[in-house]
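Budget justification note: compute hours in this period were largely spent on complex prediction jobs such as the one shown. Inputs:
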Amino acid sequence: MRIAILGTGMVGNTVGTKLIQLGHEVMMGARAANNPKASEWAATNGDRASQGSFKDAANFGEILFNCTAGSVSIEALKLAGAETMKGKILIDLANPLDFPQGSPPILTVSNTDSLGEQIQRAFPEVKVIKTLNTVNCEVMINPSLVPNDHDIFISGNDQEAKTKITEILKDWFGWKSVIDLGDITSARWTEQLLPIWLGLMNLYGTPRFNFKIVK
Amino acid sequence: MRIAILGTGMVGNTVGTKLIQLGHEVMMGARAANNPKASEWAATNGDRASQGSFKDAANFGEILFNCTAGSVSIEALKLAGAETMKGKILIDLANPLDFPQGSPPILTVSNTDSLGEQIQRAFPEVKVIKTLNTVNCEVMINPSLVPNDHDIFISGNDQEAKTKITEILKDWFGWKSVIDLGDITSARWTEQLLPIWLGLMNLYGTPRFNFKIVK
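Corresponding output:
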């Protein structure tokens, strides 16, 4: 499959490289083509890896991963272009986190709205799926780094797209339990897990943990 | 031990009755003495159960449980009185939830503040401990209703009080895993679990589930 990775940070690198290993063609998109980090990633990931602008990548990919920082996601997706993304699935991995100096991390949108919803409202013809945002990027693509059973959540308005991405989470990345929380408004529930996630990471000294719902 | 239950709802009833069963003396406090629900609870729970005003109960109890609705907790605690509660441990079980007509439940305080912090700021000489607010009241006092291992969180500024309440959670209620998240600012992390908790309750059709951190 042709896949777009939007963003050149650690999340984009980790997910993009895993997708290459799975045999897919992956274009990493940045604000402008020939971004040094995207170019380096493409150069070290073989023939099926390429790089371009956000728009190039969004045009190339059948499925798009939003791996940009939450604070710049809307802006990056505008550069990708509503028309380019129209009808495609956008998997939103980002969280609207801010780290103000001298105070604990906060969410820049929460409670009555979420980044997932903001993206869906800004691009109504894109099938926005919020998932994987509650785990570290290494765990996203290799859930067995956390032992035993644990859960990943999925939110989105398009049921067919959610079913397809649930299969991808299971078949490509190895997730065993995917909990469908409902429409994109439930993105606010999982984005709100980030503050406790960050607290637990500080407590445990590792990002290799995850939530499980026990019942 | 002499214990105050502040609030006459389902949480106060459930926790108060469990404490009576454990052999403690429990006074249930309400806005005014002789509240019908508090009187009925006291009448059906034997000699060690009594009722009174919030102030009566706060005066009676060596440890206080805030079982009022989050929307009225500060007001109820003002009636209990800062001087009455001074130096005592207040276990805050409440959540700042609002259920606006026609829209999903929201938190009335979140992200940069929490009900736990508001209470601690309003009553600086009370040892506020936030815990048990992430489970249904039946699970609070009987965690074995949810099978296997799962976690409860605790937040508070006074380490000695947290140690004492951690022992109470384990010895009285049967909790096996109590995660100390840090000072009272971490109350915002657990209060923010309520929206996903409510979503999961709707999904599963039961409040008998809980979070576990897998690592």
